[in-house]
């Protein structure tokens, strides 16, 4: 059974009175579908930089939240939000310069082929829109996603999110393929292996009379388990979907905005130009702004036949926030920081791996890191139970990470991009102590 990072009501007796009451209120008010992180849930009231604070003022090192890329409550972003909110907030049916200035600036980060951008409030909406555009452009309906992908909460995107569990019925024409897991395909050309899986899925669709519309991937394969190497492994699969008349859609909701260190977008690590790009999370450093960038020729038919209006997507406050996030990314050189601190963190993890055989593999790009825990390096049997203990052990040391992958055995390490060397040292020391407890060498 997969041991996910979630609060287990069986632990209720261990909670402090205030938190136990809050958990009960959540259950009563929000109903049964929500989940809390950690066996002992974290109650936070304030954030600053890489730190989250509980009501007593205890600081938690945030090594997980990719949304707050510029650091929690960055003053420049907060000031931009407050300034625009005190002047005007409307929608995209009026002329306003903020959305134009922001669109112009954002598009400069893309290859020239991608020249339009549309705005939404969430990554789910952006993926939903991309799928509608792909279906309209190609006339197809078949979508290929990876085995443990996550792409959102709407009917169409949840139907492409097998990581929601076996109770989630996938969309009718959705085909899944195993993610490009280089760890378990050692010695093989992972690009060729993945492309063959995509070709097989296309063949399967044709056999069922389904025309392919798109291959949709998260370019860092975060929920599948973080697959980062070798750079370029996606290129052959992109050719495969194009040859079949489908589009290549990249979900940059997690890797986008400089996190991978070497590039602004995850797809750039693969030397490919996608047809549609979706983005969200870090785009507003916590404010709900998301979007879809597109090749104009791919968007043309959709735009001619349908109108697009999203009440809140691209409003002037969101545009001002998006602009301020780009200011911080540039002024504080956060992509470079992600690369440098990412390398430092990786070296520290590699040295821990020399002590702890439970670490089977380390995969990373900048400040997006997956550390796979296994019971045995030869059998590579996933150690989900140990990963859960490490995640909770770190939480007790006030250091926050989570776990990913079908067996939840891959430590997911994804701090705000303002993470420093000193922060990395703190994290590595806490991880060392926790591993010594959970899986002594
Ligand atoms: C890869 C990926 N795509 C899409 C989404 C959906 O984004 P949102 O929660 O903003 O709707 C998520 C959210 O976790 C995600 O991780």
Summary?
The chain has 441 residues and is α/β, with parallel strands linked by helices. 37% of the residues lie in helices and 15% in strands.
Structural notes for this entry:
With 441 residues, the chain is α/β, with parallel strands linked by helices. Among the domains are: 38 residues, no CATH class; 253 residues, Type I PLP-dependent aspartate aminotransferase-like (Major domain) (Aspartate Aminotransferase, domain 2, 3-Layer(aba) Sandwich). The chain contains twelve helices and 15 strands. The strands form three sheets. Strands 4-10-9-8-7-5-6 form a seven-stranded mixed β-sheet, with helices on both faces. Strands 1-2-3-13 form a four-stranded mixed β-sheet. Strands 11-12-15-14 form a four-stranded antiparallel β-sheet, with helices on one face. A hairpin with a 2-residue loop joins strand 11 and strand 12. Helix 6 packs parallel to helix 7 and helix 11 crosses helix 12. The longest helix is centred in the last third of the chain and has 22 residues. Pyridoxal-5'-phosphate (PLP) binds next to helix 4.
